[in-house]
Automatic annotation (TrEMBL):
It comes from the Eukaryota. The lineage of its organism: Eukaryota, Sar, Alveolata, Ciliophora, Intramacronucleata. It holds the Pfam family FAD_binding_4. This is FAD-binding PCMH-type domain-containing protein. Keywords: Oxidoreductase. Residues 85-256 form the FAD-binding PCMH-type domain. Gene3D superfamilies: 3.30.465.10, Uridine Diphospho-n-acetylenolpyruvylglucosamine Reductase, domain 2. Residues 1-21 have a biased composition (Acidic residues). Residues 1-26 are annotated as: Disordered. InterPro entries: ALO_C (IPR007173), FAD-bd_PCMH (IPR016166), FAD-bd_PCMH-like_sf (IPR036318), FAD-bd_PCMH_sub1 (IPR016167), FAD-bd_PCMH_sub2 (IPR016169), FAD_lactone_oxidase-like (IPR010031), Oxid_FAD_bind_N (IPR006094). It comes from Strombidinopsis acuminata. GO terms for cellular component: membrane.
Length: 401
């Protein structure tokens, strides 16, 4: 944005002055524009210039690795993403336990012209947080800093995991507005990818970010919010880890609430016919079982006030998993009836697919058994929103996004 850039350059002197005055502390929000965006980008250009290759760089890099170890960096780590589809062997791996240490690490690596990639729980199917350069994981910066019950806001360090934040909110009668299917993400990774739950009218999670602290290589810690560097705030909420390390986040929450979940199956033709109607539910998702005409539809809506009786009995999971269990025992001698009885739906499906994953005929047979499982799993369930909205994705998987 040229207009903004000009403004930034114009007020640069003021920004530099603040830098000196504030030392390494968090850069407080200043009413005057300080052209952060430009200076961030210039910082990156400076780093890139360093990397343009000289023997000096190699010497610096070697020295940096040595001193990186003094900052807690370790070598020889191998990191893979959740689905084990991507792997990296970073030269140095940091797990700092305070934002101050993050700042020192970034400053040090920046001076040495070294790249650092920040990773969360490494769940992303494309392994976006992995790198063979240096990596930094915020897992030890995981404190729940404060809960403001009146404003319904929670402030956490970016390494706190979604499931820990949910538990911290429970005593206050608060919860997050929406959930992804799992709750293992670090809050940093959760917002940086703009994670989403279901529900056509519910925004992705980055829109719940009220304020955040971003630690940058060139400028140290910067506070961002709608009032404080708003354009950088908008970009940095979904920065994919490219603008700096998010160290602290304030999230807008909602009152804790129960949902009624309905699971039913439809044919593909019925889904096409009913799609608009389904979209009206607060949350709704489809799961089509390939090679069958079965589409699982799951809708969730707030529990109506007053008494609510389940319209259908709860699902009998043992009965529902019978088709998968019987197929598994029939197809392999290595699993006994006894073993199969102790396996849940996801374990049964994983074990079945693993028998012959590249045989289409086999996959078709497994999927037909899965379709039967879902037909028997139609029903209603009531629980707190965080327990309803998370769901079993079912084992290792390639995800195409
Ligand atoms: C089984 C499964 C189910 C899933 N279901 C859903 C779903 O329902 N909805 C959905 O939206 N997603 C879903 N995902 C994807 C997952 O939610 C996202 O990939 C996740 O939010 C990433 O969080 P993470 O902590 O693992 O981050 P990582 O994968 O480690 O990193 C993701 C990105 O965030 C950056 N990052 C991480 N921490 C920081 C930080 N502190 N500061 C700056 N940048 C940072 C990284 O550099 C990287 O670019 C699912 C993934 C799996 C494996």
């Amino acid at each position: 944005d040229e207009g903004e850039g000009g403004e930034g350059e114009g007020s640069e002197g003021e920004g530099e002055g603040e830098d000196q005055g504030q030392g390494e502390g968090v850069r407080a929000c200043s009413p005057a524009r300080i052209g952060l965006m430009h200076r961030l980008l210039r910082g990156r250009t400076a780093a890139a210039a360093l990397v343009t290759g000289s023997s000096l760089l190699a010497a610096r890099a070697a020295a940096a690795t040595e001193s990186a170890e003094q900052l807690g960096g370790t070598r020889g780590e191998v990191v893979s993403n959740w689905s084990a589809t991507h792997e990296a062997s970073p030269e140095v791996y940091f797990e700092p336990d305070s934002p101050a240490l993050v700042e020192r690490i970034l400053h040090f690596m920046h001076e040495a012209g070294r790249r650092v990639r920040v990773v969360g729980s490494a769940l992303s199917p494309n392994g976006i947080g992995l790198s063979n350069d240096a990596m930094l994981n915020m897992a030890h910066c995981d404190a729940i800093v404060s809960v403001d019950a009146k404003a319904k806001q929670v402030t956490v360090r970016a390494g706190a995991r979604v499931k820990e934040v949910v538990e911290a909110l429970r005593p206050y009668g608060l919860t997050l507005q929406n959930y992804a299917s799992i709750a293992e993400q670090q809050i940093g990774g959760f917002i940086q990818v703009g994670a989403h739950g279901t529900g056509a009218s519910i925004p992705p999670v980055d829109e719940q970010v009220v304020a955040m602290t971003l630690i940058t290589p060139a400028l140290g810690a910067i506070q961002l919010s709608a009032d404080c560097e708003p354009s950088l705030f908008r970009l940095a909420r979904v920065g994919l880890g490219a603008l700096g390390v998010v160290s602290e986040v304030t999230l807008q929450c909602v009152p804790a609430h129960k949902l009624v979940q309905r699971t039913f199956v439809e044919s593909r033709a019925e889904v096409v016919k009913n799609h608009e109607k389904h979209l009206a539910h607060q949350h709704m998702r489809y799961m089509w079982i390939p090679h069958t005409d079965t589409v699982v539809v799951v809708t969730c809506d707030p529990l109506p006030a007053g008494d609510h009786k389940l319209s259908v009995p709860e699902v009998d999971e043992f009965h529902a998993t019978a088709p998968l269990r019987e197929l598994l025992v029939k197809r392999t001698a290595s699993v006994s009836h006894e073993d199969a009885r102790s396996m849940n739906f996801a374990q049964l499906r994983d074990a079945l697919l693993a028998l012959d994953p590249l045989s289409k005929a086999h996959v078709v047979e497994v999927n037909k058994a899965e379709a039967l499982f879902w037909e028997r799993s139609q029903g209603e369930r009531i629980d707190w929103s965080d327990r309803i909205l998370g769901f079993e994705c079912g084992g290792q998987q390639w995800v195409s996004e």
